[in-house]
C-alpha cells in the first residue's frame, strides 16, 4: 500500500471517529435531558413540600382523616385522597387484569394471524384515546347505566371512575402480557402437547407461568397508570374527599385534587396552594414504588431460555 493510500485510509478513519463521537454525545445529551428533567421535578416537589410541612405536621398529614386545606375549618389529613386513589386503582384492576389477561391469552394462543392483526392495533387505538374523552364517556354512558341499576347513585361516583379507568388500562395489560407470552419458546408448548395436554392446559399451565414476570410487570405498570390518571377520574368521581367503602359515593383522588387547586384562584403563598406539592410528592412516591416493584418482579422471576 502506498503512502497516499495510507493517508486516505487514516483520514477516513479519523472522520468516522469524529462522527461517531458526535453521535455519541448527541445521544448522551438526550439521556441527560431526561435525567435532569426528573431531578428538576423531584426538587420542585420537595421544595414546595418543605414549605407546606413548615406549617403542617407531617404526622397530621399522613394520619388525618379529613382533607380541607382551602375551606374552613382547615384540615390536612391526606388519607381521604389516598383512599380515593386506591379505590379507583383496585376497582380498575378488578376489571383490567382478568379481561386484559384473557385477551392476551387469546391473542397469543388462540387467535389466527389475520385476527391478531386486527385486534391488537384496535387495542392500541383504544390506548390512544384522550383521557378526557373517557371521562365524558363515563358521565354520559357508564353513570346512567349504574343509575339504572342503582337509582340512588349520584352523578359523580367511584364505580364509574373505576370502570372507565379499568377500560383505559386494558390495552396496557393485554399488549404487554401478550408480548411476554409470545416470547415463550414453542418447544415448551410442543412438549406439553406431546404429553396430551389441551390448548387450555398449555395456555394456563405452561405459557402463563413461563411468562409470569412479564405478565405481573404489566399488571404493576397498568396500576401505576391508574394511580396517576387525572382527567377521566376528575370528571367521573367528583371532588368530595372522604373515606367511604360505598362505590356509589363521590370521592376525590390525589390527581383530581391537584387539578382542582391548579385551576382555582388560591393564593400562591397560601398553605392550600403549597399542599399541591405535598400531594404531588405523595403521588410521585407511590408511583415510583410501583415501578420499582415492577422492575424487581421482572428481575426476580425472569425466565431465560436458550
SSE diagram, text form:
Blueprint: H1 3-53, H2 58-63, E1 67-68, E2 75-76, H3 79-110, H4 113-127, H5 131-149, H6 158-182, H7 186-194, H8 199-210, H9 212-227, H10 231-237, H11 254-262, H12 271-300
Antiparallel strand pairs: 1-2
Pfam families: BPD_transp_1 (PF00528)
Family: Belongs to the binding-protein-dependent transport system permease family. CysTW subfamily.
Subcellular location: Cell membrane; Membrane
Q: How many beta-strand runs?
A: 2
Summed up, the domain count is 2
What share of residues are in beta strands?
under 5%
Structural class: mainly alpha
- C-alpha termini separation: 46 Å
What are the segments in which pLDDT stays under 50 over at least 5 consecutive residues?
Answer: none
CATH architect. name of the largest domain: Orthogonal Bundle
Proportion of helical residues: over 70%
Strand ordering within the main sheet = 1-2
Discrete helix count: 12
User: What shape does the CA trace take?
Assistant: globular
The overall pLDDT, averaged over residues, is 87
For the record, the CATH class of the largest domain is Mainly Alpha
CATH fold descriptor of the largest domain: MetI-like fold
**Element-level helix/strand string:** HHEEHHHHHHHHHH
CATH homologous superfamily grouping of the largest domain: MetI-like
Largest sheet: 2 strands, antiparallel
- Rg, Å, rounded: 25 Å
Describe the structure.
- The protein contains twelve helices and two strands; from the N terminus they run H-H-E-E-H-H-H-H-H-H-H-H-H-H.
- It has a two-stranded antiparallel ribbon.
- The chain has two domains: 12-54; 67-300, MetI-like (MetI-like fold, Orthogonal Bundle).
- Helix 3 packs parallel to helix 6 (158-182) and helix 7 (186-194) runs antiparallel to helix 8.
- Helices cover 75% and strands 1% of the residues.
- The chain is mostly helical.
- The longest helix has 51 residues, at 3-53.
- Strand 1 (67-68) and strand 2 (75-76) form a beta hairpin.
- It has helices at residues 3-53, 58-63, 79-110, 113-127, 131-149, 158-182, 186-194, 199-210, 212-227, 231-237, 254-262, 271-300, and strands spanning 67-68, 75-76.
- The chain is globular and about 70 Å long.
- It is found in: Cell membrane; Membrane.
- One of its GO terms (biological process) is phosphate ion transport.
- Part of the binding-protein-dependent transport system for phosphate; probably responsible for the translocation of the substrate across the membrane.
- One of its GO terms (cellular component) is plasma membrane.
- Keywords: Cell membrane, Membrane, Phosphate transport, Transmembrane, Transmembrane helix, Transport.
